[in-house]
Amino acid sequence: MPESQALMAYDIGFAIHDGEDPGTFEDLAEVNEITPPNQQADDIDVTHQKSPNKTREYIAGMIEPGDMTVSLNWIPGSATDMTIQTLKASGDRRQMRIAWNNGVSWTFTGYIKGFEPSTALGDKMTGTVTIKVAGSTEISGMGG
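Now predict its structure.
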């Protein structure tokens, strides 16, 4: 049996483009967890009067790019906090990038839909950023 090619979830980055031309991607600091978008195709019902075995038939429709979340250590007033708060308030769409630890990256346009800080007594302060992916995802760095 071949050895596993699984990767440990470490050294994965999430960055937001600064909006300048050409500009740069700026990493969010102290990211703990990234939950990528769950892209789903719509179901289009194409059932007709003679569908086999009285069974509904479907074809794939438009793809909903979905939402994603980034959880981080929240430091009020930090550069990361200011970026999150500014983009949430403005609703501006920006290029965003997940940089996986094997050289693959996912780049997409999105906007910050929400930010939920948490301040549990005696624990670190955290925040969860919810991002609406607003288009298709470009995947780069895949081997062949």
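The chain has a mean pLDDT of 97.
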